[in-house]
Amino acid sequence: MNRAPRKYANYIPIRELEVVEHQLLPFQVYAELRENTPVRYDNHRECWDVFRYEDVQYVLKNPKLFSSERDRANASMLTTDPPKHKQLRDLVNQAFTPRAIEALAPRIQEIADELLTPHFSEGHMRLIDDLATPLPVIVIAELIGVPASDRQKFKDWSDALVKGARDDSDEAFQELMEEKKRNQQELASYFTTIIEERRQRPEEDLISLLLAAEIEGEKLTAEEVVGFCILLLAAGNETTTNLITNAVRILSEQPELQQQLREHPELIPTAVEETLRYYPPIVAIGRIAKENVELNGQTIQAGEQVISWVGSANRDNAQFAQAEKFVPDRKPNRHMGFGFGIHFCLGAPLARLEARVVLQTMLRQMEDIQLVPETVLQPIQSAFVFGVKEYPIQFTSSINSKAI
Questions:
Q1: Tens digits of per-residue pLDDT, 90-106?
Q2: Which residues contact 338 (CB under 8 A, 6 or more apart)?
Q3: DSSP 8-state assignment for residue 290
Q4: Could you count the other beta carbons within 10 Å of the beta carbon of residue 102?
Q5: pTM listed for this prediction
Q6: How far, in Å, CA of 54 to CA of 336, rounded?
Q7: What is the DSSP letter of 58?
Q8: DSSP alpha helix (H) spans, 163-319
Q9: Which SUPFAM superfamilies match (predicted)?
């Protein structure tokens, strides 16, 4: 008898967050779980949930105990363990040096200006549709070497990559997995065509660089290049879209921060870090136990799924003073908004740069940024991404404001 495919727990919503209000602000729920059941087994999702900072960090920094490997057919850096993971990461790192990323700053500023300028005279904009989605899509498209004209396709694919089940039923999970499979096939076909073109005619882009790169005489296979492009699409687009949106959401919820950052623009980089702690784009990361492990008095069996709730860990008072408060100059800030350990987000410098440029530009040109009144926020349908579907804002255009 064939066993049904195992559910990947990070796609299934937890029952404590069934209510929309809790999805929009899950942090009080996290606090109760962190206090009452810091490591608990969820029978319905068939996984362990880990909520405290110390335990989450332990899981993420121990790949020998907690594996990232899930699907050998779709291997990427996100779903492989050492030594394969290091080999893939070393190859890709050649394109993601700090100098290479910082060199993108003028182009990112140009894109931000192009997207924002038409709205300054209007005094309102749809933050996600007009800026937070297209900016990272254009940057990633140019970086990888694909037409920015395909940005709507990219957005649709990115949404599907992080989508969660509509509820915790078996039917919803099956429906989701079928949609993800179709999505993966479309993406693989799309990138395979471009890879074949670059094999014939290399260009100054990431796909050409990845096809040419070698470490110890070994090159990436076409499947590995496809896997990386898909990973970059999801991580580079969805994460940055939600980082930008969540940062502006905080500014509109706490308007005093807007003036503080205008008067002290040198705090913008640390405010981006605090956004990653306070409203992190990714709130949960999945692993598989490779052997029996005891964690906080609970025994996790080999083969069981473990979900590390970084969104909870980032609000742990044992690690962060005034954890429930947004502190724009917080130092040190050992948040895990980009993960932790060997799978720390490769695109973190790019996401930070994009968020920094956007906040600088918006604060330079806009005052009194607010969520449009009467807006009913809707959470993204995902069990591991924290964000909203739409965030329309209104503002007063700055005149003769000093440059940031």
A1: 766 766 777 888 889 99
A2: 276, 282, 344, 345, 348, 351
A3: S
A4: 12
A5: 0.88
A6: 11
A7: H
A8: 170-200, 206-212, 222-233, 239-253, 256-263, 268-278, 310-313
A9: Cytochrome P450 (SSF48264)
